[in-house]
Write a structure and sequence with these properties.
alpha+beta; NADH Oxidase; 5 helices; 20% strand; binds flavin mononucleotide
Length: 218
């Protein structure tokens, strides 16, 4: 209640000063990832499969946190991650499309930072099923984190790094889904040129792959 009153007062002051009023975004605070349990590794490898039929049931916040931690969470005190990256540049960002909008995974803060509140799940693929999956991850390489400047040529090494980095993250997601009894599929069929502006990406941010995740459908 107190927060609401303060927020309202701030908006009134900004309005009276003729300052553009920013609508506060709805970030999602995630619970800490479980980091324990799950299926034995050999059984998860045995169960790993691509599946494209999803029920419309949403993942719980705990599942969302565990999924993202498996993909690209921090697993050591020095800030290194569950997936490797060339020279530890950590140039990948994981974007999350939910029915409530588009979010960027902030592993350190255990939070989903909202980019906008539009449902763009259908735009993450050229197939029909991404629209039905409750979660579509979009793996994005931020080449600025590899030291590139706008207009500079993207080298084969840059591409190799982002694509292989994404492969590791996607396999982590596959194994976590196998362990959790969820369906998932990695996807290269992504309309990158259409999707990038919908995601409000900067010129040095490149969409690599997407991955649909959800409860199995019929
Ligand atoms: C790099 C890559 C891109 C893929 N792109 C798509 C895709 O766009 N759409 C799709 O339905 N499946 C896609 N797949 C999933 C493959 O079709 C799937 O892995 C393959 O049929 C083998 O099935 P499995 O994963 O169940 O073993 C892709 C897989 C990889 C590795």
């Amino acid at each position: 209640m107190k927060k609401r009153i303060i927020g309202f007062a701030v908006i009134l002051i900004m309005y009276s000063l003729n300052t553009p009023v920013m609508i506060y975004s709805q970030d999602i605070s995630l619970p800490s990832p479980s980091r324990k349990g799950g299926m034995p590794l050999m059984e998860a490898l045995d169960a790993r499969v691509s599946a494209r039929l999803f029920s419309d049931k949403d993942l719980s916040l705990q599942q969302l946190s565990d999924l993202l931690w498996a993909a690209w969470g921090i697993n050591r005190e020095d800030g290194k991650r569950t997936a490797p990256s060339s020279h530890n540049r950590q140039e990948m960002d994981v974007y999350v499309t939910l029915r409530s909008g588009l979010y960027l995974y902030d592993a350190a803060a255990c939070r989903l930072k909202q980019i906008h509140n539009r449902d763009i799940r259908a735009l993450t693929g050229t197939q029909e099923f991404p629209a039905t999956a409750p979660v579509n991850l979009v793996f994005v390489a931020d080449l600025a984190k590899r030291g590139l400047k706008e207009g500079q040529q993207v080298t084969d090494t840059d591409k190799l790094s982002s694509w292989s980095n994404t492969g590791f993250m996607a396999q982590n997601v596959y194994l976590w889904c196998a362990s959790e009894g969820l369906s998932c599929v990695i996807r290269a069929m992504v309309p990158r040129d259409k999707l990038a502006p919908e995601m409000e990406l900067k010129p040095l941010q490149v969409i690599i792959l997407a991955q649909s995740v959800g409860f199995p459908g019929e």
